[in-house]
Amino acid sequence: MGDIIQVGLFFAVLVIAYLLVTGKLHARISTVTAAIFVPTFIAGFTLYFIGYIPAESSLSEYASSVMRALFSTVRMFIMEDDYSVIAELNNSQIVRGIWFRMLFWFCQTIAILISASTVMSVFGRKLSTSIRLWIGTKKDTYIIFGVNSKSLIFAKDITSKEKRIVFIDEVVDSVNAAQIEDIGCLYLEMPVFSDATINKKALVKAGLKVKGMFSGAVTLLVFTDDEISNYKLAAGILEHLKDTGFPADRLRGVYVKSNSDVITERIEEVARKLRYSISFFSEPDLTSREFIYKCPIYKLIEFDRSKAVVMRKKTITVMFLGFGSIGRQMLRKIYGSSQFVGCKFHAVVVDKRLNELEGEFKGNYPSLFDNELSNADVRFVDADISSACFYSVLDEYIKKAQDPEEDSIDLIVSALGDDLVNIHTVSNIKKYIDRAGLYRKPVYALNITGDNNDLYRNEEVDGDDIIIFGYHKNIYTGDIILYEKMDLMAKSVDRHYGGTDWAGLSVHLKNSNRAAAEYIEVFLHIVGLELKRTSGAVPEDAVSEREFHALLESNDELFDNLAMTEQLRWNAFHISTGWVTKPIEEVKRYEDRKDERIKAHVCLIPHHRLEWLESAMKEIAAASTTGEEREKVIKKCNFRELDRNNVRNIFDIIDEYNKGNTAGGKLYVVRQ
User: What is the pLDDT of residue 1?
Assistant: First the structure.
């Protein structure tokens, strides 16, 4: 019985050592085991043969020694040894020598480890996963539904010793399993649905439970490519959170991959009722986020900083090649980031399938095509990018750019759905434009995913006038998907204006706060300032809130134009998300000014009509309220002053941000 206990304890120690030592090398154990098996076997056989070698050189004795050595070598791998036997034979002096014994027991140990790792690899993955889940109970946990190339990129990007990442999928093939273990993650090969409902056992095993040893924060991500499955998964997760009473402060967020507005609205409705924070992402959305981060539109523009207006330009002209899901999202995102006093946004959309795409887009974003309201105009060109029709349009813009009084194309975005086609198209257009000898040449943006053609990487193509965006290894990352840095500033915007429940906000209001947060750097840039993060002393070139306010109050034209920029930004955000103007006749009280269900807002009007709207809304407020409430509501109707306040409050929002987000240092406003 004692021997059995010793063997059991020894094997348990080996298992624990295997789990602790291998870590990220877990997936490579079978490869390493196979590589060292043969050398270990040969070394063991050689040592045993030396021990069994006969004193007489009889052929039959040699044959017997070979067979005995072979048998003993095999026994090495089942935790047995025959050292005591060979130590009593003819070559006892050699066998009992220090070097022989060291080599012998080294081979014996390696053989046992090979056996243990083989058993664990073949039979013990589930046991291994369970133990490793138990060991990491206090770590922050990321539970990812769906194993695919994109979720693996995300996991690899965020992996660290402080995080535990668990994949859940019904089937995990050997290639993906190896990648998961290679980056130090875990996976549960379990059905995500059980009897048409979510498999709660999988959630609990992964760490989504209230009681027990699990105490770290949890982030949930739904990464499958099936929209309906994503809806069912998200709804099931939220119901499980509600049923178990999972603390909201332990839930970092639920992130759901979805391209469907209908599905996001249904999931959002459930999440808001339960007060759990939920966010959505799609490849077009991630692609546009990365592009704006790499190529802020305001940095392509020259400003008169004494007036806060664009210099020497009447339009910002962007040509979009391809109008699929990426092209449409890029148009909306770039339009929303191109609102400045003194110029309009002009888009040229080229696609040979516009007959199929144009109508739906205009139906979803009708206000974009109201030129007075949108401060934009969109031109559609139904043509193939290699056709004579397209090149005649290109010639038209090249000819305009040769006139110093006319504007040139600022940006050409190629999103044709194929990496190689995008490369060839931009290469040809660039040569064509270069031959025209333009003084102001456009910036070229290529959508390269890297999935089908890894030949083209950022460092091989990216340059001063060529920007690569949408590379999967760059967009399926923690920074882009979780959007935590931007959300910290967006939450600061929300708190500054009285918000206390971020999780309870609609996706529209969250995105509205994000859009306001993104434009803080734009406002600062327009007047020659920028944000700087530092953990040391206050920068020498830092600008105080008092100095900023003095700049605004001493220059009415600059302040008015910044306020107008804020109104243009607010309009563009709503227009690019499908909102329309609500008729004043439908507003009977201040609360009726917007209808989020049908995306209509009475304030969505051109800047020059704000004075009229203020007067009309004050009349409505006076007729529908009394006493102190009337004064409060009338004050809210000073929309132009609210725009000015949004500019004034930039420093307050930055201070709000700095209160709870000092990792890496504080943010300061400094001179450029």
Answer: 43
Q: Are residues 343 and 234 in the same domain?
A: no
Which has the higher per-residue pLDDT, 57 or 220?
Answer: 220
Question: Rounded to an integer, what distance in angstroms lies between the CA atom of residue 427 and that of residue 324?
Answer: 21
Angle, CA of 629, 635 and 637, to the nearest 5°: 110
The residue ranges of DSSP E strands in 170-299, in sequence order, are 186-189, 193-194, 197-198, 218-222, 251-257, 278-281
Question: For residues 320 and 331, is the Cβ–Cβ distance under 8 A?
Answer: yes
Q: Same structural domain for residues 521 and 475? A: no
348 class by beta-carbon count within 10 Å (0-12 exposed, 13-18 middle, 19+ buried) = buried
DSSP labels, 413-446:
EE--S-HHHHHHHHHHHHHHHHHTT-SSPPEEEE
Q: At what angle do helices 98-123 and 2-22 cross, to 10 degrees?
A: 80
What does the pLDDT look like over 607-662, one tens digit per residue?
Answer: 999 999 999 999 999 999 988 899 999 999 999 999 999 999 999 999 999 987 76
Q: Show the CA angle centred on residue 73, arms to residues 72 and 74, nearest 5°.
A: 90
d(CA 204, CA 578): 40
| Claim: this prediction has a pTM higher than 0.90 | no
Enclosing H/E stretch for 166: strand 163-169
Phi, psi dihedrals of residue 251, rounded to the nearest 5°: -100, 110
Q: Which range has highest mean pLDDT (3-7, 141-145, 496-500, 547-551)?
A: 547-551
Average pLDDT (576-592) is: 95
Positive/negative CA dihedral, 5, 7, 9, 12: negative
Of 83, 103, 123, the last residue of a domain is 123
CA triple 652-654-657, angle to 5 deg: 110
Place of tokens 């840095």: 485
| Measured distance CA(219)–CA(602) in Å, rounded | 38
Q: Do 532 and 639 have their domain in common? A: yes
Side chain identity at residue 148, one-letter code: N
The tens digit of pLDDT for each residue in 99-153 reads: 888 888 899 888 888 887 776 665 555 555 665 665 555 678 899 999 999 999 9
Q: Torsion angle of alpha carbons 632, 638, 639, 644, nearest 10°?
A: -110
Domain membership flag for residue 489 = no
Q: Cα–Cα distance between 304 and 602 in angstroms, integer? A: 32
For residue 394, which phi and psi values (nearest 5 degrees)? Answer: -60, -40
Q: Are 285 and 293 in contact, with CB atoms under 8 Å apart? A: no
Residues 10 and 152 in one domain: no
- Are residues 280 and 264 in contact, defined by beta-carbon separation less than 8 angstroms? yes
- Residue 605 scores a pLDDT above 80: yes
User: Could you tell me if 205 and 345 lie in one domain?
Assistant: no
Give the span between the Cα atoms of 323 and 626, in whole angstroms: 52
pLDDT one-digit tens code per residue, 244-288: 888 888 888 899 999 888 888 888 888 877 778 889 999 999 999
Question: 316 - beta bridge partners?
Answer: 345
Q: In degrees to the nearest 10, what's the CA dihedral of 642, 646, 652, 653? A: 130
CB 668 within 8 A of CB 531: yes
